[in-house]
Amino acid sequence: MEKVKTSSRIPEFDVVRVLAMFWVVTYHFGCEYSSPLAGSAAPLLNFFCVTPNFDFGNVAVTLFLVLSGALLYRKYGNGGVSGAKGGLRKFYVSRARTIYPAFWIVNLYVVLSMARHWVSGGTPFFAGNPLKLLLTVTGFDGYVCMFGFENYYFCGEWFIGAIVFLYAMFPLLLWGYRKSATVLLVFLTLGYGLQFFLPSEWISLLSILPCTLMLKFVLGFVLMDSLPKLKKPAVGALSLVVFAILCLVDIPGLLNQDFLGSLAAFLVFFAVMWLGGSATRSAPVQRLVALLAPISYCVFLIQHIAINWLQIIFTKLLARFDISLNGTVCLALLIVTLAITLVAAWCLKFAADKVTPFLPFSILVKKENL
User: Fold this and answer.
1) Is there a cis peptide before residue 360, judged by omega within 30 degrees of 0?
2) What is residue 50's three-state secondary structure?
3) How far, in Å, are 12, 30, 36, 73, 114 from residue 81 at the CA level?
4) What's the pLDDT band for 240 if we cut at 50, 70, 90?
5) DSSP class of residue 3?
6) pTM here?
7) C-alpha distance from residue 280 to each of 10, 243, 268, 273 (Å)
8) Which of 310, 303, 311, 290 is closest to 342 using CA atoms?
9) Which of 73, 140, 208, 309 sits at a 20 to 30 Å CA gap from 148?
10) Is the pLDDT at 182 greater than 70, yes or no?
């Protein structure tokens, strides 16, 4: 394997972040508005929402998983986690600091909801056993909700639990990759393939099953090792062509459960590695990417909440002014939704950065300094 360079920022990775952030918003917006209420707006919303073979939610999450794996491998791939300064303790503390401050701030809504239920004469534990709050504190509430387990889930989607799981597994996966990348990849690929033989109710969850998550995450290691080769024009151009085909040509079968969406994400990654560097040499694009990339995680946290709440407001306003929800109106609502989501995400990141030095977040800081 090639030595991994860690000395400079990779601007193409920030472009990938911004694309993934955009697609996760357009996908969930389309899910909410592509309904009988939307009527003729549905064809427009399909653009950057769903294709005949995959949805852009899958593409966005896959890109984030791959990026997470690539960046951690870039940092720890040469010496391993244990060999790095601070070892495993500092690694896990640093990962907790990237995930939990913003996540816990948004989940203060759960505490307020508990208080509201209590004041109104009900039980504060409105979603059942208070031990379920442990799932919210650790970020697994959205993930287990996907399997039908009701709890106090409010924000963050299932992605938070998935990334916490992968961060926890990273030292072991890195150890296996350094011992034999081929063996690990064969093992994970075989596990991924066997999942297609699961019962139909599990097939629909294929994209969030642990083996799927680990395979995409570890493929980030591979992409980091192969980065120079991915910047070749032939790779990027071919990736764009195949991506366009996947967007337009229906390929029936089980592969469109997760595989084709994941493939589309990798094709986007390859294309950005080819074109992204040139794009970020433009000063306006560089400033835009530098503005948006740092808030991508916060956008992931709040976008679905923002879309749902704004939809309630938009529906009432449209009804009041007797405006039908056509394609043009939906496009305008998408732009407004995206703008408000970005502002809210920036505010959330600002708040998270400010509160980190104080309790309970300062506990993480003190441990990191040990």
Assistant:
1) yes
2) strand
3) 25, 40, 51, 10, 40
4) very high
5) P
6) 0.90
7) 10, 22, 16, 11
8) 303
9) 309
10) yes
What's the pLDDT at 44? Answer: 55
Q: Which residue has the tokens 């399997």?
A: 147
AA letter at 185:
L
Give me the residue label for tokens 């995959």.
54
User: Does a cis peptide bond (omega within 30 degrees of 0) precede residue 101?
Assistant: no
DSSP string, 279-291: HTTSHHHHHHHHH
50 strand-pairing partners: 55
- The pLDDT of residue 194 is 94
Structure tokens that stand for 29 in this block: 């917006």
Q: Quickly list DSSP for 66-82.
A: HHHHHHHHHHHTTTHHH
Residue 60 tokens read as 């966005």
Q: What is the mean pLDDT of the chain?
A: 87
Secondary structure element (H or E) that encloses residue 154, with its range: none
Residue whose entry in the numeric block shows the structure tokens 């917006």: 29
Phi and psi, residue 53, nearest 5°: -115, -20
